From TrEMBL:
InterPro entries: IPNS-like_FE2OG_OXY (IPR044861), IPNS-like_sf (IPR027443). Residues 250-290 form the Isopenicillin N synthase-like Fe(2+) 2OG dioxygenase domain. This is Isopenicillin N synthase-like Fe(2+) 2OG dioxygenase domain-containing protein. Residues 1-40 are annotated as: Disordered. It comes from the Eukaryota. Residues 27-38 have a biased composition (Polar residues).
Length: 378
């Protein structure tokens, strides 16, 4: 499973003196593009590390929008997803099967994990990237430090001393919904679902073609989103709305403020899905983060289920299929579809790349001011 991979530093070459050096750059024929990408990355990291006295001016409040509503019980689920995702990279899912009480119990168990003493946190959740606790050491001076915890959805902890029944059941229920959303999304956009196409092969080895991670963030909400810049690549992310709360999303168009209705599931489309769709889908970078006002200094816990891929996977655009969704007629001929496939194949938006290299980069370099997928565009 992806989350059980050893630390990425183990993959780096050793010098004669025992210290590590950066891995060699990926060969490319687009030297100018790569050079520009490195320069933008360096600028992004520099801006992130500016001390409070040299910080950039406060940005304007993000525009507010109501997430489109998609009914999970609808017979036309792919059609509704396509209509809702034609311009946005997120929507709120209603009429799903996840009990509200289960989500509330999972939140209580999650909060108890952040109350553990440091030695117990290390004992129950030893750091094994991306798993374990991650405390943001770069406090920006206003008290908005954050702590996050990444867990494997199918096995939150191997410790027999710590039982998390609600969080485990909640994670599996969210994963089931997420997989159905991916299937409907692939049908809606018109490409073959890579998870389904590889499922028969993986059954022989009893492994799964996907990996699910539970991403829990904790911080004191203040006058800006609790966001430390770290995120992990995913296909789709799901966040159950336990209470009425405003969130900020970092979409391709910039920051957006949303307020999903209670008991809905906020679904965001990730970078892997954007590559699979050959750029047809927009994406959200990271997950939704709480964005409360100055008057609310409450402790804030956010739980997200990320459906992603095993760490050793390679990501590339998926050839399109004829789009056939319930409620619509597909009058295109076989020749039309073959021509479309050929045309799209000749105009690939993204190159193939390693998920492990990409995941390590976006998690550690905190590229807030630049799309990390830019360097892989053709």
């Amino acid at each position: 499973m992806a989350s059980s991979a050893e630390d990425h530093h183990h993959h780096q070459p050793q010098t004669p003196y025992g210290s590590t050096v950066a891995p060699p750059s990926t060969p490319t024929t687009q030297a100018d593009r790569l050079s520009t990408s490195h320069a933008a990355d360096a600028l992004s990291r520099l801006i992130h590390r500016l001390p409070p006295t040299l910080s950039l001016p406060t940005r304007l409040a993000p525009p507010k929008t109501s997430p489109p509503i998609v009914s999970f019980s609808s017979q036309n689920l792919p059609y509704e997803i396509r209509s809702s995702s034609s311009k946005l990279s997120f929507f709120q899912l209603t009429n799903h099967s996840i009990p509200s009480q289960l989500a509330f119990s999972a939140e209580i168990e999650s909060l108890s994990l952040f109350n553990l003493p440091p030695d117990k946190k290390q004992q129950f959740f030893p750091r094994n990237w991306p798993l374990g606790f991650d405390e943001d050491e770069e406090d920006d001076g206003d008290g908005n430090s954050t702590v996050s915890l990444c867990l494997s959805a199918d096995c939150p902890t191997k410790s027999t001393e710590l039982d998390l029944p609600s969080l485990t059941e909640f994670s599996r229920a969210m994963e089931k919904v997420g997989l159905e959303i991916i299937e409907a999304l692939s049908r809606a956009v018109g490409f073959e679902n890579p998870l389904r196409s590889r499922e028969d092969e993986d059954k022989k080895s009893e492994s799964r073609p996907w990996s699910s991670l539970v991403w829990i963030s904790e911080g004191v909400a203040g006058n800006k989103p609790v966001f430390n810049g770290r995120f992990y690549p995913y296909i789709v992310a799901l966040q159950y709305q336990i209470r009425c709360r405003k969130y900020s999303l970092l979409a391709d168009s910039g920051w957006v403020s949303v307020s999903p209705q209670v008991d809905s599931v906020l679904v965001t489309i990730g970078d892997i899905a954007q590559v699979w769709s050959n750029g047809k889908l927009k994406k959200v970078r990271g997950t939704a983060v709480a964005s409360l006002g100055d008057e609310d200094k409450s402790r804030c816990i956010s739980m997200s289920l990320l459906v992603t891929l095993p760490l050793e996977s390679s990501i590339s655009p998926v050839l399109p299929l004829a789009i056939t969704v319930d409620g619509e007629d597909d009058n295109r001929t076989k020749a039309d579809n073959e021509n479309e496939v050929q045309s799209c194949d000749q105009k690939r938006v993204f190159q193939s790349f390693s998920l492990e290299d990409y995941a390590w980069r976006v998690y550690n370099e905190r590229l807030l001011f630049k799309d990390p997928l830019d360097r892989y565009r053709t």
